[in-house]
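Input for the complex:
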Amino acid sequence: MRGLLQVSNIDLLREVERAWRALEAARAVIPPELEGYCDWAEKVCEEIRQAVRNNLADIALGIDEILVDILSATQETTRSFHVFNQRFLSGVLRFQLSDRLCLRLLKWLHSEHAVTRDSPMSIGDGEFSIWPAQDTPVLYAMPPSAQRGLLYLPLFFHEFGHLLYKHHEPEMDDLVKNLQRAIADRLLAGTQRGDDYDLSDLVYRKTIVETWFEWTQEIFCDAVGYTIGGPAFANAFAVYMRMRGRGEYHAERDELALCSHPVTWLRIKLIADRARQSGAGPEADELERSWAVIAAALGVTEDYYGYFEQTFLDDVRQTVTDMLTEAGPRELRQEELGSSDTDAPSNSPPHLLNQSWRRFLRDPGRYAAWEDLAIRGFLEKQ
Amino acid sequence: MSTEWLSARSFEQDQELISAINTLCIHLKIRLRGLPDDGRAEAAATARGKLVLFLDALERITAEAAQSEMGPLLGRDARQRQFAKSFLSERRRLGKRKRLSQRSPQQIRNLLGSSDADEQRLLVAYLEELRMLLERHIHADTVRILGEI
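Predicted:
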């Protein structure tokens, strides 16, 4: 065991050294937006190096009883390095000029919120996601083609919601817990009314209530997206998701228990509800109409098998409003909605993103040429 | 939108706890041999602090989960619920054969401040079993984050 641990730790040290050298080489080409991130990555390399040196020193003590602990420590350090290597290192090493668009937007987003002002961030390739962290940089992921255009950038605002949640976690968890209690009460009332879905089944009701922990965070993040991006977010989300298949409109009863996200059709309705509450009635109606048309064509009937009922809406709405008050996402300004497709391209990201959606929906065929100019203009103005 | 944030949250929490257990166990074992380990004293104190918070939280979650086997666990994400259920299930399964089933998280937590050698040996044994549960729990998140080869 001692020999195995020695070899594994020496190997880890070698890998960390290689990662460090790659970071040093990347320093020459990264933009200012990535410098904070690069500083953090170098710090992580040093922390892992130190952890490995500690393991080697402990091995050298020659005390057999602690070998099992050194084994666990070596595995813990290895996992940390593998996650860093696979997920975080590429945040610097993959930099290409086209990243500037996303990095400028994310820099703006972070700078608009006190809790994230000094948080370095980077982007990677993949489905829209975030590694939300308070003490380490934030890693966003977005599909490669979406990174290079304007239309789907508002989806970053949803991911940012997870980061805001993390920064206000205890208060948020309490609000969610209260909502879960309210839903539990509504479900119990449902059994007394003789509603469907076998709500008399205690296990089934329990599953619904527990599932709402994750669902509430996703609904909150959608609300953050709408608060920051307005119609641009609603359009980005609706258009991105509506052609992904039947599963976005309906999930079977036993599938819902395994869903960490609400059915997308339900999320659309809740985004539309929030839009309506903010005075955007016609846009909300159009959002719901477009999804209803597709659902009808698929032969899907809206049914959440007790996981959502209209009786939940007031509690969900109020909880999310309270969560927004706690988290304080930057609100879209009236002037950023813009009034005309012919507005000059702007360096206000929400204005630019809303403008891009207005232009695209009005004339999708001629949008691409405008978008190229708008991106260039945005990057030149920063 | 992916569920990365769930796995990231769970992974970071478990890593921190496993690291705390490793630091404290090594420190205690060296000291129980009568050898000095001054260089690790501060890290061991920090580790104790983290484990106190974790065991207090685990006591609360498992009490909630045990009070009503059928009732929902509120304010907990899927990974936390999974860990609480695994902890309770493991205690039932092991019966009296393993130490983890013999004491509550609160009782283990109370051993953290003890300077009595026998209690420290007992604490090490409990922490080793707890670490095994955490290592089993973190595997699912590790696979989700890193994938499989």
